[in-house]
Amino acid sequence: MKLHIRSGLTWFILLIALIAAVWVVISITRHNDGQPAMQRLSIGSHAPDFEGVNTNGEKIRLADYWGKVVVINFWASWCGPCVNEMPLINGVFQDHPDDVATLFVNAGESKGTIMEFLAAHQFEFPVLIDAAGKIAGAYSITGLPATYILNKDGAISQAIIGEIQNKQQLDNAIEDARGD
């Protein structure tokens, strides 16, 4: 009897998780302002500007970072590959505080969920909250993780769709964006 109840509860939890995942994907891929969805951004094109609030309550605008290389990482706490690559991107955040801006954009989750995740994983970086998926929509995000590296002029230097494999891959992308 206990096994049957436990099995039913497991399936129920998996069903809820699946529904939540589908909802997040739908919310980050639709465009909320009535405009047609943008075409996938191309290397060399100017990155769409955006504005939002981070987990520290600070207003963030992408254009404020022009003049620096910018790493924009779209992620969610339920995304295994996102979680796997976070230490690498956190390393950029810590190693390059002055010359590389690192913007972590959480796609589709609430501030409470984000804060719980950060505390559980002992990450201290601020995260831009994109609960409605507006920023992800501007970047035509259809899967997570997705990382854009912008040069100092705000043009897209590289796009890494999927999990970043190693530190060298990320370091090379940053060096390319610097033009070194």
UniProtKB/TrEMBL annotation:
Pfam families: AhpC-TSA. It comes from the Bacteria. Residues 41-179 form the Thioredoxin domain. Keywords: Disulfide bond. GO terms for molecular function: antioxidant activity; oxidoreductase activity. PANTHER family: PROTEIN DIPZ, THIOL:DISULFIDE INTERCHANGE PROTEIN DSBE. This is Thioredoxin domain-containing protein. It comes from Paenibacillus apis.
